[in-house]
């Protein structure tokens, strides 16, 4: 299946937007600036822009950063009559659903497309630096932010705002590659910067939904966990942004499951998935719980989606946290969900059984619940566990035998929680019996096993006596070992 992308063209879904509809009527100052931008942009001459872009490409082909700065200068001159934007208030007052359409929905299609084509000719490695510089410049309007040195003479923040939006929609990874800097730099810290950061992510998400989710998970989801530092309004804005990213693309599920990995990393890493599980199934139901419940099923699918690069290691990490959560910790809802995740992890990657062996004793209560779940749902999971290869079946069987050894050792000692080991051992015995039947569901009985072995022995002995009688003693010893192995397999 080919990669499905969101449409970076703002006109495709936003045609004929009336600029006066982008703000509530009482926001007269912002409304005047928006209308001024729309009216001024409409006067831009596409042929003049085409000539300018061609000249820039010819004269500064060796200096891509200089090219993009000249384009910002050009837009600055063309938009010099635009009324002043009150940046901080605009981002605070704007409804998010309307904010993402500004400013590109106000730029004529022909002008936008020519600019997009030009940006596509620039070396990608130039663009992340442009994103950081442009966003730094715009944020200098916020109180307490250190002013950014202007790199060209006639710089317009409105022009920078327009070109930044174009870059983010055209090359969304120009944002994803600078996310660590957005997390760490003081310029981007604080609730007052949140609307602008979400606007940036929204532009990237319009161009590529996976880039939007990748950014949200890494830079915004952690802020929800730190909810004591952020107001309920900020948490609402963070959740609203993801809801909007997902709902704005009717093919969101297909897009995300088609590309669960970016830059060699999961869109939703195991640690982030654990945060989502805890937020969706909290010990105490909060205001945001229902909203997480609504988006969780899709995010869970993305977190568990298979791929050839990261799945094996990711499933081990997911199994580790799910086993710990399956212990309950006084929260039956999270325990139930964690057991389901753990079951899926071990059935999709049997190497999780090796991880389970390491964690078994320290997560005994969860292990008891998980073993019982495996027994109860064996018919649903046995095919996956046993059909891949014979080595997978041996891995499972070896782990269960190891569990039994731990159980028997502890039961013999008569420790306080030996009853849990007894419960676990009952499930282990049942699983071993089921394993002896194989994945097809037909049990190979001990009697059948012995008959097959005896027939093989008779045929083999006859051949040895005929061809090499001096090897008969060695052959008998080998037969004894084979019978002993059949006995262990048939009577676990």
Automatic annotation (TrEMBL):
Key word Transcription present: no
Gene Ontology CC entries for this record: endoplasmic reticulum; Golgi apparatus
Keywords: Membrane, Transmembrane, Transmembrane helix
Domain of life, source organism: Eukaryota
Transmembrane segments: 444-465, 471-491
Pfam family, one: TMEM214
Presence of the UniProt keyword Transmembrane in the record: yes
Ranges for region Disordered: 1-23
Protein name (Swiss-Prot/TrEMBL): Transmembrane protein
